[in-house]
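INFO  loader      accepted 1 record
INFO  loader      residues=351
INFO  predictor   begin
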Amino acid sequence: MMRANWIERTLHPRFPLGTSKGVITERTAWYLIAWDAERPEVRGIGEAALFPGHSREFPADVRTALLSLCANTSDRDQRLTTDLVELPSVRFALEQCLKDLEVSGTKQLFPSDFTLGRRGIPINGLVWMGDERTMRSRIREQIDAGFTTVKMKIGAIGIDDELALMKSVRAEYGPGDITLRVDANGALDARNAMDVLQRLADLQVHSIEQPVAPGLFEVMAELCERSPLPIALDEDLIGLNRNDLRVDLLDHVRPRFIVIKPSLLGGWQAAEEWIALANERGIGWWITSALESNIGLNAIAQWTATLATEGAQGLGTGRVYGDNIPSPLHVEDGELHYRPEAAWDLSGLTT
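INFO  predictor   done
INFO  writer      dumping tokens
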């Protein structure tokens, strides 16, 4: 008989994480832990990591669902296709937990050259918002660390200053040397967005994620049709938990790319459904973490390593925490690597 428990933990970034929706100074994560009563030493762990300001879930929703799951584990498989569809982070936590139990709690969820330590996953260096001097320093740090794709969050210090920062990068590095991406998190004004997109295109920026607020589908469709800069949908995907809704979005808006965040979309199954729809339409995509701890990041990274990805993925966010769970994951020369000889330290997740 399966038994389960859950733990709530607060993670603390090494520095304030600036976004257009505010500054993140701490992050709550919930861990679902399950075991067979006859083998209590073997435990599967999954992480629920909703993203305040982006997720449609609330902490109370997560706690209620986890309490229900732990009280009755007998219908766990059925719930993956019923009520948990509307609770993406909890659904993903259950997927992870069951998969980890299948592999005897080793966290080797998807064996590959990545988990064998033979191949890394190219990732982008992420420049969080801050004042101009701080952002300029962070851009330099990412380039010096070996990242050839740098993603910059915009919408905090003013677009003119942010464009000036990108112009300084382009003065030193051409698009063949450094790929620039920007993430607006919906911060651009629909009335002047096209002007900003043109100025970004002039700097040979690769793409922009979610230029205007989610839900402005008519505006986004027009931008995607007219923009000289490729647009990637991000927050617009959240909450579309049925395939007919996803088809409507992709066929109407017709973006060049979509950003796949398993924790916000409902786990591996939902992410693969989005990828299949994108592939059918010639829409590009990449995988991005959403400030999970190393439990969730590991689950996303190992799955990503099995996919036919192109370009840099957004899987470097685990480095931001000073109190993250020690794991075999590490970043080197612009790639995420898994060191199979390194051990997990799960002492902080005892129940």
